[in-house]
Amino acid sequence: MYLLDTSALIELSYGTELAYKIKELIGQEYTVITTISIEEFLVGIDETKFDIALSVFGAFHVYALDIESAIESAKIERELKKNGKIIQRSNIFIAGICKRHNLELITCDEDFLRITSLRVRVIK
User: Fold this and answer.
1) Could you tell me where the DSSP H helices lie in the chain?
2) Cα–Cα distance, 74 to 121 (Å, whole number)
3) Residues 69, 93: contact at Cβ < 8 Å?
4) Do 104 and 117 form a contact (C-beta atoms < 8 A)?
5) Nearest one of 113, 100, 98, 80 to 4, comparing CA atoms
6) Which residues are registered as beta bridge partners of 61?
7) Smallest Cα–Cα separation from 105: which of 8, 21, 18?
8) What residues form DSSP beta bridges with 33?
9) Which whole number is the average pLDDT over 77-99?
């Protein structure tokens, strides 16, 4: 089971070379995105493509930041701060959701590799 972060979702939406690698990897596997990624994606998308983007999300299961995920996120952020390796808070939330549900993260963002307790696959 996989969780796609915002960078992977963006690649898929643009149909890039990395998108093909992501599609090949996930195949028909249970794949999740987060409400965090939906917000980040919609903020950055062109206004004319907003409604089209909304329809794309229906292809995925969507997980939100619940209490257990928030606790995992706090543990991750504390560890990152302790090691001087802080990353964007939105990425910490995505990682917390991923850990809470025991998913493998698919991303194009190497910052997630700083979270040693997370199963991460960086697509390059």
Assistant:
1) 6-14, 17-26, 35-44, 50-56, 67-82, 89-100
2) 22
3) yes
4) no
5) 98
6) 32
7) 8
8) 62
9) 98
- pLDDT tens-digit readout, 17-36: 999 999 999 999 999 999 99
- C-beta atoms surrounding 20 within 10 Å: 13
For residues 90 and 112, the answer to whether their CB atoms sit within 8 Å is no
Residue 21 Cα to chain centre, angstroms: 16
Q: Which of 16, 4, 14 is nearest to 112 (CA)?
A: 4
* pLDDT score for 86: 97
**And the tokens for 7?**
């960078």
Supply the pTM of this predicted model.
0.94
